[in-house]
Amino acid sequence: MNKRLGDQTVRIESKPRIISTASVVGPKEGKGNFKDYFDVILKNDHKENESFEKAETNILSTAISESIKRANLTEEKIGYIFAGDLLNQLSASSFAVRGMNVPFIGLYGACSTMTESLSIASMIMDGEFANYVIAATSSHFAASERQFRFPLEFGTQRALTSQWTVTGAGAMVLGKTGNFPYVTYVTTGKIKDYGVTDSNDMGSAMAPAAAATIYQHFKDTGRSPSYYDLIATGDLGKYGKEITEKLVKKYGYDISSNYMDCGQEIFDKSQDDTNAGGSGCGCSAVVYCGYIYKNMMNKKFKKVLLISTGALLSTTSSLQGESIPGIAHAVSIEYGD
Amino acid sequence: MNKRLGDQTVRIESKPRIISTASVVGPKEGKGNFKDYFDVILKNDHKENESFEKAETNILSTAISESIKRANLTEEKIGYIFAGDLLNQLSASSFAVRGMNVPFIGLYGACSTMTESLSIASMIMDGEFANYVIAATSSHFAASERQFRFPLEFGTQRALTSQWTVTGAGAMVLGKTGNFPYVTYVTTGKIKDYGVTDSNDMGSAMAPAAAATIYQHFKDTGRSPSYYDLIATGDLGKYGKEITEKLVKKYGYDISSNYMDCGQEIFDKSQDDTNAGGSGCGCSAVVYCGYIYKNMMNKKFKKVLLISTGALLSTTSSLQGESIPGIAHAVSIEYGD
Fold first, then answer.
1. Residue-wise pLDDT tens digits, A1-38
2. What's the short name of a Pfam family annotated to this entry (chains A, B) (predicted)?
3. Which of A183, A314, A331 to mutate to probe the B interface, most B CBs <10 Å?
4. Where are the CATH 3.40.47.40 domain residues in chain B?
5. Are B40 and B62 in contact (CB under 8 A)?
6. Pairs across A and B, CB distance < 8 A
């Protein structure tokens, strides 16, 4: 049977299991809507490190180590770590994995990295190249602000369309067997760029990519929105979510009844300055590894389509007048009938 | 039969073929030792673009398009593009692929990206997730200098251990069948950090990772150095190559008779300021896609071990006093008996 369905989707026949997850978040995320679902909530953004970048490294390595522990495994059993983050040269991931004795593949898909790494991890498992692999990613508010925008001390006012980069890391261990949620389909995104140039409105820039991938997933698999208990995009925020829902409707599918955006939901609306919602690779990572995974384990959600969304801009590309290309990768995760 | 051999190596049973390659280089590379093997040699580093970054984007998209054309294919036939580069947020790759209607996976392994993308591409082919995939990468001297070091106008003096980032891009199309060189083994690297902090001596920082991966490849496969006609590391340069050769000897393998480093060889020694040799993701990419591939096609080399090498530092990590983690991924490429 051909594993490839249509233009962008592959069937993951062996159904690799997500045998454990770990989520580590900062204090702000730890006071948000999903506070009861995170495994580790930090007391401060520094996590006793001398810089935000080192803190992010530490948060990611904690999530990876914790996911291994929760799977009752040891490092030597892990075939590959697939990880990425937002810092230049993927330094959070490289430094987090540096002390680990595991083959490492670095991935960059901006905030789409959680499903990018989970997609590759699932295909590598299905290809029988390893018994266990890890998919992980992280982001850090303060490290992102100073790299992409301004140092916090600058005290810039935030646009209403801007989003708050999640401080957090999520890691999943995939294994071959066991009674756990499993991956059934992977729909890999194409880059979409509709000319949005406002880097304070990344939800709008990413929405066309999200909508295209969601549509393609339904088209390739023959499924309809009602097949899923939950369709969750990564970090489109309030405005990007609205656009995505409309665009998907134009494609002929109504997702309104079971659609949430991790970015829009992660913070409580009373939390200062979060405006359009959360963002960053860590956003869909911790919401999946925390809230969604735990509600799959207790069978509240049996069928989930997770679509992390990334804005592939750089500060240089924006300064050179380029628009913001978006990408979104979808992974279908199911548990039971 | 288990595809996994030992700790880091997998057998690629289906032997995906490298059915075409394309190499695009700048004028300096076009005057170097491999000038007769490159497909496109640019007249200037700008390639008629308004910035070095846009030039790199254009060089990479040219290499990808050219590789598709040389394979007698069209974009719609390509299942995935796996690509990465050195620019922040992988912007050369994202913008190069933006106009292409192909599912995209961004990878970052610093200068190890050519074998990183080729490794993943080979496993995805072997897993039967696509009929054709592309592995590609690029780098650009002037874009790298100003991002990682100083603007060229600053006119800084270059250390003797420093290397000259290659302006160039290489792309390979992998297919299932045909009389072409094929991938047989992939050895994925672990991160090695021996504490080198001098970012003007990256060859020394990467050497331990290169040596560890080469050793692991021989150990996992049971092969010895003499099995290969050519063992080629990515961009260790003069000093990194010397260290690697010695370290591999300490591991019990003598590679001296058939070992070259793409970085050490790409420039003619008379070329100004290239000092320890070439570097950048583009280095092993264009040397493989040009010189090595063409000499595989004419059967001068029948068995090649390609080991691209990456230094996983960022300017931030160096400023924060971190040492330079290295990584190296090996791919065994063979043709005929």
1. 589 999 999 999 999 999 999 999 999 999 999 999 99
2. SpoVAD
3. A314
4. 4-175, 182-334
5. yes
6. 170
CATH 1.10.510.10 fits A4-175, yes or no: no
Tell me the torsion sign for CA atoms A193, A195, A197, A203.
negative
Q: How many residues does chain B have?
A: 337
Judged by a CB distance cut-off of 8 A, whether residue B74 touches chain A is no
- Residue B145: name the closest of B258, B266, B28 by CA: B28
Quick one: how far is CA A9 from the chain centroid?
Answer: 18
CA pseudo-torsion sign A233, A234, A239, A240: negative
- What distance in Å separates the CA atoms of residue A170 and residue A193, rounded to the nearest whole number? 28
Among A103, A107, A327, beta carbon nearest to B189? A103
Q: pLDDT of B152-185, one tens digit each?
A: 888 888 889 999 999 999 999 999 999 999 999 9
Nearest in space to B195 (alpha carbons), one of B309, B327, B323, B326:
B323
- As a whole number of angstroms, the distance between CA B175 and CA B131 comes to 6
Q: Could you tell me if B40 lies within 8 Å of chain A, comparing CB atoms?
A: no
> Is residue B168 within 8 Å of B23, Cβ to Cβ?
yes
What is the pairing mode between strands B326-334 and B182-187? antiparallel
Cβ–Cβ of A94/B316 closer than 8 Å? no
Give the CATH superfamily of A182-334: Stage V sporulation protein AD (3.40.47.40)
Question: Which amino acid, B240?
Answer: G
Is the CB of residue A106 less than 8 Å away from at least one CB of chain B?
yes
- Interface contact B108-A104, CB threshold 8 A: no
Per-residue pLDDT tens digits of chain A, which is 337 residues long: 589 999 999 999 999 999 999 999 999 999 999 999 999 999 999 888 999 999 999 999 999 999 999 999 999 999 999 999 999 999 999 999 999 999 999 999 999 999 999 999 999 999 999 999 999 999 999 999 999 998 888 888 888 999 999 999 999 999 999 999 999 999 999 999 999 999 899 999 999 999 999 999 999 999 999 999 999 999 999 999 999 999 999 999 999 999 999 999 999 988 988 999 999 999 999 999 999 999 999 999 999 999 999 999 999 999 999 999 999 999 999 998 6
Strands B9-11 and B4-5, by their bridges, are antiparallel
| Tokens, residue A78 | 């892990």
Locate the chain B residue with the closest alpha carbon to A189.
Answer: B103
DSSP-derived 3-state class of residue B280: coil
Q: Which of B231, B282, B13, B7 is nearest to B122 (CA)?
A: B13
DSSP designation for B109 = B
Token pair of B295 as six digits: 């000499």
Structure tokens at B63: 């290499």
- Closest Cα in chain B to A84: B108
C-alpha pair distances (Å), B267 with each of A220, B110, B279, B311 = 48, 20, 10, 21
Which residues numbered 141-180 in A keep a CB inside 8 Å of some CB on B? 147
Which string of b and e fits A290-313 if b means at least 16 CB within 10 Å? Answer: bbbbbbbeeeebbbbbbbbbbbbb
Please classify residue A324 by burial: count the beta carbons closer than 10 Å to its beta carbon, then call 0-12 exposed, 13-18 middle and 19+ buried: buried
First to last CA, chain A: 22
